[in-house]
Structures are given as structure tokens and as C-alpha cells.
Amino acid sequence: MTAKEALEHLCSNDTEEQLATLRELSVLKAMPELYDITVANLASPDNGVVFFSLDMLIKKYPIQVQRDAKLLTPKLLQLLTTNNGPVVDRAIWALSVTGENSINELIECITSSTDDRSKEMCTWALGRNAHIHQHPTLVMYTLRSLLLDINPHIQYVALNALMDMSPLRPFERLAGDNYDFEPLYTELEAIAQALLKIYSGKQEWLERYLELLRNRHKPSN
Fold this sequence. Notes:
Elements: H1 3-10, H2 15-25, H3 35-40, H4 47-60, H5 62-67, H6 69-79, H7 85-97, H8 102-112, H9 116-127, H10 136-146, H11 152-165, H12 182-198, H13 203-214
Helix pairs in contact: 2-4, 4-7, 6-7, 8-9, 9-11, 10-11, 11-12, 12-13
């Protein structure tokens, strides 16, 4: 498939034609001529088109994505609230590709938003951002403040992010020499215990977190 042919298909009003083209392009080398239409298709009403477009931007055009971070970041933040898991996953990934300033953009959204859903999803994205190790104090301050939010969903997301960053979890999202988690563990344990009583649907994870927190000083076998 040539770039000209692909462009014609991607500009089509036929969603199935767009999807078939995106699937084919996913296994081909990047074609710089298709970058602009790929960005434009982030506004598609079809989640499949949006997903494959995000996937292409991440994997085939990372330099352009970082270059155009100021333009793309608002679009990516909006996609966090689509309620489509695959799209949200790729939007979170793309927010890391845009560069280090994504941390500041996410925190600005969290602290200024009056919409709880937007705040919740931006908190998820912050916890999984690739640049948190460059701003550990700012990230941790933001997440700790969310533990006191009146919305238990936001409290849980903040707890989840902090646990996943901690040395108690295997992801190494925030190295131990970047932040001392020990003074935070008592606070996390209290929040997890409180949420266990009021937040239905997450009991299994909350109990797992409590086990990790309570056994953190025991030697591993």
C-alpha cells in the first residue's frame, strides 16, 4: 500500500475501510505523509479508529508526537474519559510519549478540574506516566492530597497509584532513592482500611494492599 492509497482510505467516511487500512498500516513501516490524518482521526466517533490511530502515533511517530505535544496533550486528556479501556490505555501511553511536561499537564488537570471523572482518570494517567521519577516530590504531594478527597473513587485511584510506585510492588515506577515511602505507609494503611468499609467492588485489591502494608517489615521467604 502506498502512502497516497492509505491517505485516501483513511479520509474515507466508511469506518470499516478506515479500520482495515489502519490494521494493514500497523504492520508496515511508518509513512510520514500519514501523520496529520492520523492525528485528525483522534476525533473519530469510532473507538476502533481512535485506538489504532493512537497506537500508530505512539509506535510510528514518537518524534512528531513529542514535537507537537502542546497540540496533542489536550486531545489526549479528553480521551482519558471516553470509558473505552483500550483507548484510555493508549491515551495514557501517549501522554508519556509527549514528554516530561505531561506531568505538569496532568497535575494541572487534577488540581483545577471540577469534574470528578476527569480528575479520576488523570490520576490514573499520572500514576502510570513514564516521567514521574523526574518530579517525585510534586507527584507524591499531588497523590497524597488526593487521599483526602471526598470521592472514594479518587481516593482509591490515588491509593492504587501510590502503592504501585512503592517498593512494596514490583513495578519500580519510583525508585526508592527518589522518595522515602516509609513515613507514608501508615497513612496508606489507614486509607485502605477506611475504603474497605465503604468502597464496594475493590475489596480484593484493598485487602491485598493491606496485607502488603502490614507485612512490609517481615522478611520474605
